[in-house]
Write a structure and sequence with these properties.
The complex is a heterodimer of chains A (596) and B (261). With 596 residues, chain A is mainly alpha-helical. Helices cover 69% and strands 2% of the residues of chain A. Among the domains of chain A are: 13-73 and 82-159, no CATH class; 269-492, no CATH class. Chain A has 28 helices and four strands. In chain A, a hairpin with a 3-residue loop joins β1 (46-48) and β2. The longest helix of chain A has 27 residues, at 86-112. Chain A is globular and about 75 Å long. Chain A starts with 7 loop residues before the first helix and ends with a helix. With 261 residues, chain B is of the alpha/beta class. The model of chain B has no long low-confidence stretch (mean pLDDT 91). In chain B, α3 (95-101) packs parallel to α6 and α5 crosses α6. The relative contact order of chain B is 0.17. The termini of chain B are far apart. Classes of the chains: A mainly alpha (596), B alpha/beta (261). Chain A binds chain B through residues 426-427, 430-431, 433-439, 441-442, 445-446, 448-457, 463, 467, 565, 568-569, 572, 575-576, 579, 584-585, 588, 592, 595-596, and chain B through 50-52, 71-73, 76-77, 81-82, 84, 88-93, 97, 100-102, 104-107, 109-111, 113-115, 117, 121, 124-125, 128, 142, 150-151, 153-154, 156, 158, 167, 171, 186, 188-189.
């Protein structure tokens, strides 16, 4: 519904301040992305044959998004916004233009000033990329026109109908998925014996062919027309069915579908994806453990990796023939029992001195302990026993009678981890609703009061520490058997932090949230040393992690799939408003009036 | 033997005596009010008994045993429960959970029971729940029904105060310390709660110590009144004796002008 009233007064009735602000941010983001080297690094990764590389895409999405943001209006209930018109398109175009000016400045800068010393990406490579191996004038013209067009397109998204917008986003996001997940789709189509399909979509040298891009774009755009919101309707119906019986039946159905998928799917997936799933599982197991410590008991433990290391090293010492000092070469099952004992001991040993601290102090002290454990494993002092920086190698695969779990067969690792994850989920679920779970909740809310209400806070907190430690040590044990060796450097502080990010982004205290969190973060971006689906971003993983964390804290602090409790906690005002609208206090005030 | 005996209790913060030379005992089944102007040390007195503040010297004997040096949770387990002047519920837990969690020290199931869902575990959970609902039912319909599953922060002020009392009751105490239970309530709510306090003793068998500024409540509920000023007990006795005691009037109103000169 484009309004074609080109009344010039109306057209230039712009909110200049807003445009300058968002245009400036748009320019800064583009310059930032260029200077951290994303375009140069990812330019080799072709998305569409001879047209678009991932590197360029990283610059191109910015004006589109900012064009959308600049003409977005705050919607308030009861106040009608003026109809979006041509002036909004102009605002979008100007924002895109301002953004492109940032790139022009970068080009001019690279040519005239040498700043390679602090900024390693301030180099001819970036220059060639930005000028398309042509002159600055040419490059500037291209970027400016591209910026203007994308900015306009972004702002026009407010003016097209909802259906159109849906088609547009389906098409764009679908294409992006297809292009970025080339390896995975290749792998998948091989698993299902559909090689011809991936040959059809992708060019031989990598990237989608231009024809397939166009065809797919059209097909994807038609997708919402076909489904017509049926999916959403099903979900709503599923959710609105609140009779306890139906709810139970629905949960059982959903659960069994997921269970069957999880069990059957690995047989159709190739090595890459199974490897990936195994990693997701290992980190999910860690995250579930940390979720008990942080999410349920509210103890911010930044040294969680210590327990992961204890599990790994115990398994290594007990099963590997290469263990330098004590090498009983037991079966994994027996070593697992030792792992549990060691984890409990470690939990108590680390927990006991720090457990009386609260909040920030606890975080700092656990951070220290995490490092101490790693340094102990690395130290010369323990080298005769634990191998120092050489670690312990030659850890045998897990022998399970007819099956063998070893790193070369990621599917077996996946199933092994899956079993532990199911155990961890059961433990979290049962404890959450128990006497101990309630005590943890109370401690999280107000520790002093919890103590006055008769809760032995020291014991309860220690128990959270110990349960978390045991789950983490399981993960460490499987990791040791999977990789076949343990080194101190596998247990660096980054692991603790990434698991914490998984828990926070997923939703603290929420089991589903933690699962989604680890799938999204570890599966797509990758763990500290494990590549994810988007292997291209390996070098920028931490940048993306950080950006995601900041974004989540601002926009959705309760996490991706939060528990009802946490949502309520972080949105108390809204909850109270709803309760008030739902006739909360009125009966009471009536009562008082009557008595008076 | 008295239920609670306090000998020469002294609490000092820096150079300030928050409480000094407090000698005082409470018999089983009594309702005792502690009054005094602001800053007289009333809440410090409660904090010391419940173990949140260690006394500088003196002795507190509850039911024949010293409570000095014990953690607050151990003291609660011995049978002393309290409420807070500035309501301190677990705001994000539901009304029911607030009461359930306070039975922690009277129950025992740990990890194993929860994981294997043992009979004992299920039985205990059921008992905790039933007892919680019984306790909440004591306050009429105000905290039951749909409110059971509401977070505590969503309650009205008066209901929060009631829930605090319910939570203290759930620890199954012998001695209940109520810190300004009617502060901020309107006259009708105050009258209702005054009635409830007497019932707490008669029906539930609690011995009650209550800090209160509302003299009507003090008159109506207490068997005995203790007046503190600057951490020193200045008078004890029944309401009528205390309210006419010149020292008490002076503590509240100040010395008459002519007497000063």
């Amino acid at each position: 519904m484009m309004t074609s009233t080109l009344d010039s007064r109306k057209l230039f009735n712009l909110n200049w301040k807003r445009i300058l602000f968002w245009g400036g941010i748009c320019a800064l983001s583009q310059v930032f992305i260029c200077l951290v080297g994303l375009p140069s690094e990812l330019n080799r990764r072709i998305l569409i044959e001879s047209t678009l590389s991932l590197g360029y895409l990283f610059i191109l999405w910015i004006p589109l998004v900012f064009g959308y943001i600049v003409s977005k209006m705050v919607e308030l209930e009861g106040i009608e916004n003026p109809k979006p018109g041509a002036s909004d398109l102009l605002a979008g175009a100007l924002t895109g233009l301002l953004g492109s000016l940032g790139l022009v400045l970068v080009m001019l800068g690279i040519e005239n000033i040498d700043m390679r010393d602090p900024l390693i990406n301030w180099n001819p490579k970036l220059f060639r990329l930005l000028t398309f191996e042509n002159s600055i004038t040419f490059g500037s013209l291209v970027w400016i026109s591209v910026g203007v067009v994308l900015g306009t397109v972004g702002s026009s998204l407010h003016q097209i109908s909802g259906q159109m917008r849906k088609m547009f986003s389906y098409s764009i996001f679908g294409l992006f998925t297809f292009a970025v997940l080339e390896d995975v789709i290749d792998d998948l189509s091989e698993g299902f014996r559909l090689e011809w399909l991936s040959d059809l979509i992708y060019a031989k040298k990598g990237g989608m062919t231009v024809t397939s891009t166009i065809v797919l774009a059209v097909l994807l755009a038609l997708l919402p027309l076909i489904t017509r919101g049926k999916l959403k309707a099903t979900v709503t119906r599923y959710r609105s069915d609140v009779t306890p019986g139906a709810q139970r039946r629905n949960s059982v159905m959903l659960f069994s579908i997921i269970a069957v998928l999880v069990i059957v799917l690995p047989w159709f997936l190739g090595g890459i994806i199974n490897e990936l799933l195994a990693n997701v599982g290992l980190f999910l197991l860690l995250a579930l453990g940390l979720n008990i410590v942080v999410g349920l008991a509210g103890l911010l433990d930044l040294g969680y990796v210590a327990f992961f290391a204890v599990g790994g090293y115990t398994t290594a010492v007990f099963t590997s023939p290469n263990s330098p000092w004590f090498s009983p070469e037991t079966h994994f099952g027996i070593s697992l029992l030792v792992v549990v004992v060691m984890a409990i001991l470690a939990g108590l040993l680390i927990g006991a001195p720090v457990i009386r601290m609260r909040g920030d102090y606890l975080a700092i002290v656990t951070l220290g302990f995490g490092e101490i454990i790693r340094l102990l494993f690395l130290s010369d002092w323990l080298k005769p026993y634990l191998g120092g920086s050489q670690g312990i190698t030659n850890i045998p695969p897990i022998d399970l009678g007819p099956w063998e779990v070893r790193g070369a067969d990621p599917r077996s690792v996946f199933y092994m981890v899956l079993a532990f994850c199911v155990l961890a989920i059961y433990v979290s679920w049962r404890l959450q609703g128990s006497r101990l779970g309630r005590a943890w909740m109370a401690i999280r809310e107000d520790e002093s009061v919890a103590e006055v209400m008769g809760i032995n806070t020291v014991n309860s907190k220690l128990m959270a520490f110990v349960v978390g430690a045991v789950l983490a040590s399981f993960s460490g044990a499987v990791l040791a058997a999977k990789v076949g060796s343990v080194f101190p450097k596998s247990f660096e502080i980054l692991v603790s932090i990434i698991i914490l990010v998984v828990v926070i982004v997923g939703g603290m205290g929420s089991i589903t949230g933690v699962m989604v969190g680890s799938l999204v973060l570890i599966g797509i971006l990758g763990g500290p040393r494990q590549p994810g689906l988007l292997q291209e971003f390996q070098n920028y993983k931490l940048l993306i992690y950080g950006a995601l964390l900041v974004f989540m804290m601002l926009k959705r602090p309760e996490g991706l799939v939060p528990t009802a409790r946490r949502t309520r906690e972080l949105h108390q005002e809204e909850y109270l408003q709803d309760a008030w609208l739902g006739d909360e206090e009125t009966e009471e005030s009536k009562e008082v009036e009557e008595k008076l | 033997m008295s239920l609670l005996e306090i000998h020469n209790l002294q609490v000092t913060f820096g150079g300030l005596d928050a409480l000094s030379d407090l000698d005082f005992s409470i018999e089983e089944g009594e309702i005792v009010s502690v009054i005094g102007p602001n800053g007289a040390g009333k809440t410090t007195f409660f904090n010391t008994i419940s173990g949140m503040i260690p006394p500088t010297s003196g002795e507190i004997i509850f039911n024949g045993e010293s409570v000095l040096g014990l953690d607050p949770n151990q003291i609660t387990e011995m049978g002393i429960a309290r409420t807070f002047q500035n309501v301190r519920l677990f705001p994000n837990m539901t009304v029911l959970e607030n009461v359930m969690v306070s039975q922690h020290c009277r129950t025992s199931q740990l990890i194993i029971g929860a994981l294997f869902q043992t009979k004992a575990f299920k039985q205990e959970e059921k008992e905790i729940r039933e007892r919680s609902e019984e306790i909440l039912g004591f306050f009429g319909t105000r905290l039951v029904g749909y409110r059971l599953d509401q977070p505590a922060f969503a309650l009205s002020y008066a209901n929060r105060r009631r829930l605090e009392i319910a939570r203290a009751m759930a620890t199954q105490p012998r001695l209940l310390l109520l810190d300004e239970p009617v502060a901020g309530m309107n006259p009708i709510e105050t009258a209702e709660l005054t009635g409830l306090i007497s019932r707490l003793r008669d029906e539930w068998g609690f011995t009650i110590v209550i800090i209160e500024h509302d003299m009507k409540v003090v008159r109506d509920v207490s068997d005995r009144v203790v007046v503190l000023d600057h951490g020193v007990p200045i008078a004890q006795g029944n309401y009528d004796e205390v309210s006419t005691n010149p020292d008490v009037i002076e503590a509240y109103l100040g010395r008459p002008v002519e007497a000063k000169s």
